[in-house]
Amino acid sequence: MIASTISKAGRLIDTRAEAGGPPPRTLARFIRWALRGAGPVIALGAVVSVSAGLTEVAAMYLLGLIVDAAGEPGPLLAHWPLFLGAAILLLVIRPALFGGLALTQTVMIGPNVFNLVMTRLYRWTINQSVSFFDNDFAGRLAQKKVQAANALTETVVESVNALTLGLATVLGTMALLGAVNLWLVLILGVWFVLYLWFLKRHLPTIRTRSAERAGARAMVSGQVVDTLSNIKTVKLFAGRQHEDGKTLGALDELRLKALLFGEATTSFRLGLICIAGLLPVALIGAAVALRGSVTPGDIAAIGGAALRLAQMTGWISFSIMVISGHLGEVEDGMSTLSVAHDLTDAPDARTLNVTDGEIRFDDVTFTYGGEAGGLEGVDLTVKPGEKLAIIGASGAGKSTLVALLMRLYDTEKGRVLIDGQDIARVTQDSLRRQIGMVTQEMSMFNRSAMDNIRYGRPDATEAEVIAAARRAEAHDFILTLKDHKGREGYAAHLGERGVKLSGGQRQRIALARAILKDAPILVLDEATSALDSEVEASIQSALDHVMEGKTVLAIAHRLSTISGMDRIIVLDHGRIAEEGTHDALLAAQGLYARYWERQSGGFIGADNDQTEAAE
């Protein structure tokens, strides 16, 4: 009953609510950003915690009254209201409050705060540009999100549990001591100042070393995930020892950081044990010294409160140490995850409206920040419904052209327009919904074949998915699939990045996805490179049908696959060197003709040593 009530209270947090703005780069503001909307539930937990703390003081106060009552002449039953009050406090109120405190942490605060923080970090990260993910380990980023969300959740729980309860106990004890003798309050105050000084001296070191340990832990995760994601390459190149060296090196660094963290926390805890031991000695000694002005019950209450406070101080101090460590982990995650988006929708961005499908590159330059590859001063217009083939040696700028069309990067100079609309002035989602794409390295989700194809159009029916698979020549092999859990056919999961499929099978799934999406603009980046000649021929008619009425950009190294396109452009060192039809370019005896004459097995020779970052 109580758990059900508190669980309902926990749902007062809308864990999917937007945070409102980007994550700040300072710790306190970042925490406020992450926890925005959770305030009422955290406050409710704090109220329960304060109430529980005050019962500790009330119990000591009642203990003193009982001792004094026991020392008075007459029957103890004359004081039955006092005994009844103590029984109710100890047997009903105190257990109920501490039980409620435990439930607020495990049912109301913990799961909801974690979901809230994780959702916000996930949303912010997934909206980063492609270049953000190009420069980091996927496993490291995932580890930092989970680590930061978990650390912030534990910080809230520990704050509500220990700090709030402890503060209420300290203040209540001060009131109790003040009622007995103000000198006792002064003694407690001096001890508390010493306690705070000790915390201030040691906690920054713990926080710093915790952040270093968290960074090392995330690096281990990134290294392990990177190795496992490329396990076939590791096996094929007998790279186990090389990967061992990298992973064990990361683990050695983690061990070093963990040892330094352990050294700091051990020193902290030993010091606290000594400081905590001073309190009962000082207070009980003072109470005995003041015995002429205090009653035996006062001494009992003071002694009980001092011992309980000393015991609680150790617990609170441990919690503060844990919180400081967690804040270090949050800070480590914040430094990576709160990086500002470098590619965003304009404030007045509109939805892209594709009426004809004309694409125009207007004096476009993009050089990956001065690195090799890219485009320089490209002017290109693709007419509505035109089938444009793009060829060139590696590093010529082919995939860069497509990446800029998809707005995976922003141009350094010039504009890209679709039907006269600058793609930098429309929303990214509306742009990409209007473009279907099949690449030579189309990765799959570790989900069912049905889900992978349906990714092209999430609202598609099962019949529409199967129809798209048939047109992509994927239906027959999908029916033969079976995963380790016994799921078969379209329900079978494909493994991480589609590892259970051959290259040709992955490409046919990707083709089915593009067919299902049926976008007005279609990009084919080596769309049939992984298919054998027989399968390629069988789906070529399907591709021809899919391309009807669409504006198509096709990148290919096999010239045989593009010779029938409406127009061909040849890129060389980021510029358009030639353009025209297949026959016209052969007659011109330029680059295209040399590629045609030189190709072996139908592929363009890679006579350019440049490598292109996007390819």
From TrEMBL:
<keyword id="KW-0812">Transmembrane</keyword>
<dbReference type="GO" id="GO:0016887">
    <property type="term" value="F:ATP hydrolysis activity"/>
</dbReference>
<dbReference type="GO" id="GO:0005886">
    <property type="term" value="C:plasma membrane"/>
</dbReference>
<dbReference type="InterPro" id="IPR027417">
    <property type="entry name" value="P-loop_NTPase"/>
</dbReference>
<dbReference type="InterPro" id="IPR011527">
    <property type="entry name" value="ABC1_TM_dom"/>
</dbReference>
<dbReference type="Pfam" id="PF00005">
    <property type="entry name" value="ABC_tran"/>
</dbReference>
<feature type="transmembrane region" description="Helical">
    <location>
        <begin position="76"/>
        <end position="93"/>
    </location>
</feature>
<keyword id="KW-1133">Transmembrane helix</keyword>
<feature type="domain" description="ABC transmembrane type-1">
    <location>
        <begin position="43"/>
        <end position="325"/>
    </location>
</feature>
<dbReference type="InterPro" id="IPR036640">
    <property type="entry name" value="ABC1_TM_sf"/>
</dbReference>
<keyword id="KW-0067">ATP-binding</keyword>
<dbReference type="GO" id="GO:0140359">
    <property type="term" value="F:ABC-type transporter activity"/>
</dbReference>
<dbReference type="InterPro" id="IPR003439">
    <property type="entry name" value="ABC_transporter-like_ATP-bd"/>
</dbReference>
<keyword id="KW-0547">Nucleotide-binding</keyword>
<keyword id="KW-0813">Transport</keyword>
<dbReference type="GO" id="GO:0005524">
    <property type="term" value="F:ATP binding"/>
</dbReference>
<dbReference type="InterPro" id="IPR003593">
    <property type="entry name" value="AAA+_ATPase"/>
</dbReference>
<feature type="transmembrane region" description="Helical">
    <location>
        <begin position="174"/>
        <end position="199"/>
    </location>
</feature>
<feature type="domain" description="ABC transporter">
    <location>
        <begin position="359"/>
        <end position="598"/>
    </location>
</feature>
<dbReference type="InterPro" id="IPR017871">
    <property type="entry name" value="ABC_transporter-like_CS"/>
</dbReference>
<feature type="transmembrane region" description="Helical">
    <location>
        <begin position="41"/>
        <end position="64"/>
    </location>
</feature>
<dbReference type="GO" id="GO:0034040">
    <property type="term" value="F:ATPase-coupled lipid transmembrane transporter activity"/>
</dbReference>
<keyword id="KW-0472">Membrane</keyword>
<dbReference type="InterPro" id="IPR039421">
    <property type="entry name" value="Type_1_exporter"/>
</dbReference>
<dbReference type="Pfam" id="PF00664">
    <property type="entry name" value="ABC_membrane"/>
</dbReference>
<protein>
    <submittedName>
        <fullName>ABC transporter ATP-binding protein</fullName>
    </submittedName>
</protein>
<feature type="transmembrane region" description="Helical">
    <location>
        <begin position="270"/>
        <end position="290"/>
    </location>
</feature>
